[in-house]
Design brief:
Length: about 350
């Protein structure tokens, strides 16, 4: 069975997905694309010899599954429509631009015959899967705390793009790269329920007319086109006692970092997504008391491609995947919403009874 894929939203992320789809070992076809922009549709049709549509409903009748790669505000519109059409969906993170929109997607997914998978591709990175394997084997013991960092020294998306508009993105650095950091921390901790969040979000660099244009992509239209946060700090408490400290920034005066430090009762770990490395930290009394630090050599396969392989296999088998679920993505959305509310009120925020 060749799985016919339709792509909704034909921008840069769609191109990355299509490049990986073309390299999968499974029988899959880039069958169609949807975009409101005529030039984007033309480019897509020429690049992939695919049918293109302005209206998604017309495409739904021609494909087995869809990728939704639109700006955040439009996730709900297309995900819900695709699920109601009986299709399987892979939607890019975050689940939506607001918690209320994410909850409506979750309700649609629960009622649908098809399934929805959310694009937190870092879970499929080889060192992440290796670390989770050690955790499941009991080598780490009970995870007590995780330090999660996703920091750019300078890397605000082009001011004036949809990334820097609160009405379209729903937020800035927190909802963009912070979503990845929160999801990965909760995933490594084995998805505990979150009970309380304390956090602060800031806009210090994107609002600066003298912002240094370093590692920014897209055209810069200036500070007046920036209405979101560019950094966030938070502390997350979970029902099982696990805690998570979060540092996220599009821009800040410190080195870049995608490091995660995991503290367990039997061992700790440093996971660095920037260089795809994993190090384990243990202490033993074999022979003589000593520290043991082990660098783990893992494969370096593309996590986005592995994510696609899992999605396509699930579509073909008709079995919803157990990972990257809407329920898990909704938990991330609730944490982000709580961080924004905590920042507004200056107090810790309970995530609420709906967080189970």
């Amino acid at each position: 069975m060749t799985v016919e894929i339709g792509i909704i939203g034909l921008g840069n992320i769609a191109e990355i997905h299509c490049t990986n789809l073309q390299q999968l070992d499974q029988p899959v076809s880039i069958a169609a694309g949807v975009d409101v922009d005529a030039e984007a549709r033309q480019r897509f049709a020429e690049a992939y010899d695919a049918a293109v549509y302005e209206d998604a409903a017309a495409m739904f009748e021609t494909v087995d599954a869809v990728f939704v790669t639109t700006p955040n505000r439009f996730h709900e519109q297309y995900v819900v429509a695709a699920l109601e059409a009986g299709l399987d969906v892979l939607v890019e993170k975050p689940l939506a631009h607001t918690l209320e929109s994410a909850e409506r997607i979750a309700a649609a997914a629960e009622a649908a015959d098809g399934f929805c998978m959310v694009g937190f591709h870092n879970r499929f990175a080889d060192p992440v899967q290796t670390l989770v394997g050690y955790r499941d084997a009991g080598d780490v013991g009970d995870v007590s705390h995780i330090e999660a960092n996703y920091i750019r020294r300078r890397g605000v998306p082009g001011r004036g793009s949809w990334f820097t508009r609160s009405d379209v993105a729903g937020g800035g650095s927190l909802i963009d790269i912070g979503a990845h950091a929160i999801d990965l921390a909760l995933h490594v901790a084995d998805h505990p329920a979150v009970v309380e969040v304390s956090g602060d979000t800031r806009a210090q660099f994107g609002v600066d007319e003298e912002y240094a244009y370093v590692q920014m992509w897209g055209e810069d239209h200036g500070a007046s086109e920036f209405s979101v946060d560019d950094s966030a700090s938070a502390f997350i408490r979970c029902a099982d006692g696990t805690t998570i400290s979060l540092e996220v920034a599009w821009a800040t005066n410190r080195p870049d970092s995608q490091e995660y430090y995991v503290r367990g009762t039997e061992a700790g770990a440093k996971l660095d997504l920037a260089d795809q490395s994993l190090t384990l930290f243990e202490t033993a009394n074999t022979g003589q008391m000593h520290h043991r630090t082990t660098d783990i050599e893992t494969q370096q396969t593309d996590p986005k491609r592995k994510e696609q392989e899992r999605f396509v296999s699930a579509v073909r088998d008709g079995t919803p995947p157990s990972e990257n679920t809407v329920e898990q993505a909704l938990r991330v959305q609730r944490v982000m919403d709580a961080i924004y509310r905590s920042s507004e009120t200056g107090t810790a925020v309970s995530v609420g009874k709906t967080e189970t």
